[in-house]
């Protein structure tokens, strides 16, 4: 065991896979010599050399095009899109090309690739460098989408993503880069499409993703001191979505609260609520409630950004209120 | 129209044997007759959706393909039926794909604009302008990384030179010295708008080459041997570590942009002038002038008619894709589920 930051876990996950498989290559802006603007890829160039770890121009379409084409021709590339907001300038490659081509070709080609990016709020970057866009990705058939909430998951899910033969988008919660956790030594390999129950309680289920997971846990502790026992599920993977685990937790507790960093409309929680209502109506003890960022661009000022994101206090008060039903 | 001389090397036309020349003729005729049949089937409402014909431009795919080797990669646009044919994909499965039949190249799930034949290195036809340029770089990168010696050829239209992906792709290919040949098929028009009316320079690809440290290469895209010579030099350069080439091939589509577009926005003199430069009858005359027997060429025409008829029968005989196919091959394990 050793203390590892969420930031270091990114490089560790990539390095673990690059050591194992020569066909794994890594590209992005400022990722090689500089080790990434968030320092998530420090050491990769030194260990694997400039043939496998490559700096690119500021050309997001060229980066994702090269990633897709290389995957089609036998490599297993990992690309960085520096801030997930920048997907907006290369979304064709994601939404029309790498996601649809295998289906259109009825299986003639596959796309074993990973795209990782810093995602979401917490660093006061303002609206164009802070949005959680994981729900954009979830809306595209043909993409797998994971959002690790801690260093161990980061390594394990990175490994699972690299070994998977389909396009996987990894969203790194950039507000959590400095968070530390004890990480076991040796290889860590997780699996995609698995949510994790990280706290058990009989009164309600809180489903949270990415940076919202530790907040949901702190809220659950406070609720516990007030007599409400929550099950907390770390959703981890939006596609595939682990409906089995989520449904089991919800049906046992009869109540669902989601904690989502994305703006309100069409967040992952909306999909989850519709599933549990359609498929588990009989278990409902009260209305499912979504706790999200409001449907707004994120402001930059400390207090306004904090106000916009679901806070521990807002989670506690919303759940306390919801439980009265 | 004037053509700049090819700064790569002069076309090695004399390296084409008579058999090679006859094969160039055959490939152009196959492309032409195939596209005419697509058009007929479209008018009969058997080809669904939309379709973009290559009639008039056949010398480009034919000449370039002749310069490529087995195992090389091809990327192309929605106007790409001929590009598969010349790489060896049989007519039947392409036609069946356009008819939406289960014996289609992609079981009917792709359609006219999305043809792909990975077994022949055709890693796709792309319908979003410019996308294939950046994607083709990736295939070239993989070949470079694995040192396989494969060359990637990426075709695109004149219209694509005004989209950002073109410019990102050129710069990227040059800085990574990728084994790739970009072929701009300048047929003078986007859909309905003349390219010169929306472009800051006269030659939409070649005049941009210098910005990426590339030589401006313009070739008569209706002269199959000139195309072959230029492409052969570019492919050789790519294969021997010399990096990318951007070729602008000047040509014209005889018909409209797509479907039943009659192309009325084009001045008649312009159309007539280009019809006079039709690559196929001109090459036929040239071959006869060099002593090829006319009946040998007639035989090719007849054989091709037979090939197209057979392909049509094959395509029409295909059943509709089974309902189950809706649910297959989104993911690499063949499935399409989004939940566990
Ligand atoms: C990004 C994008 N914008 C617009 C279109 C619609 N569109 C389809 S074909 C076409 C014209 C393209 O012209 P060109 O690149 O010259 O190719 P050509 O059709 O002449 O072969 C347009 C505008 C598209 N498919 N993709
Ligand atoms: Mg054009």
Automatic annotation (TrEMBL), chain A:
<dbReference type="InterPro" id="IPR029061">
    <property type="entry name" value="THDP-binding"/>
</dbReference>
<dbReference type="InterPro" id="IPR005475">
    <property type="entry name" value="Transketolase-like_Pyr-bd"/>
</dbReference>
<dbReference type="Pfam" id="PF02780">
    <property type="entry name" value="Transketolase_C"/>
</dbReference>
<keyword id="KW-0786">Thiamine pyrophosphate</keyword>
<dbReference type="InterPro" id="IPR009014">
    <property type="entry name" value="Transketo_C/PFOR_II"/>
</dbReference>
<dbReference type="Pfam" id="PF02779">
    <property type="entry name" value="Transket_pyr"/>
</dbReference>
<dbReference type="GO" id="GO:0000287">
    <property type="term" value="F:magnesium ion binding"/>
</dbReference>
<keyword id="KW-0560">Oxidoreductase</keyword>
<dbReference type="GO" id="GO:0016491">
    <property type="term" value="F:oxidoreductase activity"/>
</dbReference>
<dbReference type="InterPro" id="IPR033248">
    <property type="entry name" value="Transketolase_C"/>
</dbReference>
<feature type="domain" description="Transketolase-like pyrimidine-binding">
    <location>
        <begin position="4"/>
        <end position="179"/>
    </location>
</feature>
<keyword id="KW-0670">Pyruvate</keyword>
<protein>
    <submittedName>
        <fullName>Pyruvate dehydrogenase E1 component beta subunit</fullName>
    </submittedName>
</protein>
From TrEMBL, chain B:
<protein>
    <submittedName>
        <fullName>Pyruvate dehydrogenase E1 component alpha subunit</fullName>
    </submittedName>
</protein>
<feature type="domain" description="Dehydrogenase E1 component">
    <location>
        <begin position="27"/>
        <end position="318"/>
    </location>
</feature>
<dbReference type="GO" id="GO:0006086">
    <property type="term" value="P:pyruvate decarboxylation to acetyl-CoA"/>
</dbReference>
<dbReference type="InterPro" id="IPR001017">
    <property type="entry name" value="DH_E1"/>
</dbReference>
<dbReference type="GO" id="GO:0004739">
    <property type="term" value="F:pyruvate dehydrogenase (acetyl-transferring) activity"/>
</dbReference>
<dbReference type="InterPro" id="IPR029061">
    <property type="entry name" value="THDP-binding"/>
</dbReference>
<keyword id="KW-0786">Thiamine pyrophosphate</keyword>
<keyword id="KW-0670">Pyruvate</keyword>
<dbReference type="Pfam" id="PF00676">
    <property type="entry name" value="E1_dh"/>
</dbReference>
<keyword id="KW-0560">Oxidoreductase</keyword>
<dbReference type="GO" id="GO:0000287">
    <property type="term" value="F:magnesium ion binding"/>
</dbReference>
<dbReference type="InterPro" id="IPR050642">
    <property type="entry name" value="PDH_E1_Alpha_Subunit"/>
</dbReference>
